[in-house]
Amino acid sequence: HDHLISANQLTREDIEAVLDRAADIAENPAAFREQQAGSVLALCFFEPSTRTKMSFDTAMKRLGGDTTDMGSVESSSVKKGESLADTVRVIQGYADAIVLRHPSEGAAKMASEFADVPIVNAGDGAGQHPSQTLLDLFTIRENAGLDDLTIGIMGDLKYGRTVHSLASALTNFDARQHFISPESLRLPRSVRFDLHEEGAQVREHTDLDEVLSELDVLYVTRIQRERFPDENEYHKVAGEYQIDLDTLDAASDDLTVMHPLPRVDEIAPEIDETAYATYFEQAHNGVPVRMALLDSLLTHE
Ligand code: CP
């Protein structure tokens, strides 16, 4: 079975196939209404989620399928000490595919070794979040285009799994990537190494002003407080790298501001009503993109 574990596994052709199908779905959702009738998707979220869980749920239902939800760690038998391997071995008997979010890096990969149905990694700790990347790329393609793209990715680049997946997938396109973060939250060495191996056009900055005026897209992220081993380290960087209208003075009028959400204080609400703001559209794109992804994983083309 095909699993979606990491953005590293996605070729340009894979990505374009999903984005093209998502565009078809967005244009004519009625044509896909019975596409997965009779199929069931299991939602296994060991960590909180609003967008990923609800948009996968909606996506499956809009394809005519159904979903079954493990519920929270507190309300499931994980609470009694059941292992992830056993949980997956059981749930695969209830569903045709499993969407898994887990606090441990590598959890989805491990789960895929125990599953006879496709596993979608919906976030594994500070690792990867590849289905988010597909909706990010869809949003970028619609707003700025994926060719000759200059993107700034700002905030928590160390623990931000959406960043790791997006940076990797962008190596398939003609994209210049500028990474903007405090020194302590730079990209992990392993991600930098992979980008280098792929020949990515990458620069790192601590100051957004160094690059803001060149950007087509500014992808802002939340400081991932829950990943810091030491709360004091979080407080040293909390509140840095926020943007408001003054910050964007030097930006192009066509700048697209994205954020995987949830935001805490990284983007001032005054930006929400401007033409820059694309983060709610981005979240809404989760439904057609995840419909396209599920349809491709479940149809075995
Ligand atoms: N962007 C994202 O993964 O959001 P949730 O944590 O709400 O699923």
TrEMBL record:
SUPFAM superfamilies: Aspartate/ornithine carbamoyltransferase. It comes from Halogranum rubrum. This is Aspartate carbamoyltransferase. Pfam families: OTCace (PF00185), OTCace_N (PF02729). NCBIfam families: asp_carb_tr (TIGR00670), PRK00856.1 (NF002032). Carbamoyl phosphate binds at residues 51-52, 101, 129, 132, 261-262. Transmembrane segments: none annotated. Heterooligomer of catalytic and regulatory chains. PANTHER family: ASPARTATE CARBAMOYLTRANSFERASE (PTHR45753:SF6), ORNITHINE CARBAMOYLTRANSFERASE, MITOCHONDRIAL (PTHR45753). It catalyses: carbamoyl phosphate + L-aspartate = N-carbamoyl-L-aspartate + phosphate + H(+). InterPro entries: Asp/Orn_carbamoyltranf_P-bd, Asp/Orn_carbamoylTrfase, Asp/Orn_carbamoylTrfase_sf, Asp_carbamoyltransf, Asp_carbamoyltransf_Asp/Orn-bd.
